[in-house]
Specification:
Blueprint (H helix, E strand, L loop, with lengths): L1 H5 L2 E5 L4 H12 L3 E6 L2 H12 L5 E5 L7 H11 L2 E6 L14 H29 L2 E6 L12 H21 L4 E6 L7 H7 L10 H9 L6 E3 L3 H13 L2 H13 L6
Parallel strand pairs: 1-2, 1-4, 2-3, 4-5, 5-6, 6-7
Helix pairs in contact: 2-8, 4-5, 5-6
Length: about 260
Amino acid sequence: MLVDRYGSWALVAGASEGIGAAFARELAAAGCSLVLIARRAEPLEALATELRATGREVITRTLDLGAPGLEAELRALAEAHPIGLVVWNAALSVMAPFLATPLDQHLRMLDVNTRGPVTAARILGEPMAARGRGAIVLLSSLTAFWGSAYLATYGATKAFNLSLAEALATELGPRGIDVVACCAGATSTPGFTALVAGRKGPRAMSPEAVAQKTLARLRTGGAIVPGGFNRFAQLLLSRVFPRRLAIKIMAGQTRALLPPG
């Protein structure tokens, strides 16, 4: 169904592990040839080798997804392959008090988490529109719905991605392009597992479930919150609790995961 609707080539950014790798496996199982992009070469190539063994064509690019050269790289990939489905999973997260985080880390999050999705949507969306079909998945987060203490800049970038996806779903939908923001909650990625490290953290979904539920709902457009528990929490905090209280509740959850000291 994905190949029939969007074409045979898909691109996954931030594909080396976790949610990105889960999307890559799901897309390969659906029959897609893949362009996989990530910063770390070794896990990226390991995933590519795994997927090539299933008979899929897989191309890898080791890129800094916050660097100015991203535009040229994506243009070259778009010219070489008719990429019809994009999953932009790449993101940088720093969990710490805002003033304890160096400014260069805040600015780096802006480069990776906002410049990257805008560049990808603009460069890869143009040929999709010319073909009259395509799909763009921007990875957002439940943190997009409220100000996120101790994740202030990261949460703000995810709110940016949510707003961008909602706007593009309206603009590009009539041109045959489905655009969604995957607002995932806690997910059992290697980074999350290391962060929790034996402590009681929030209920986590598997990366595979996040990818499956998102791909199944591409045609809905706009925000997707995978998982029944996450949807319940989002509705409760957004529509029942006063916004200020919701922000305090989320801050308490995040503060509990901060390193001691």
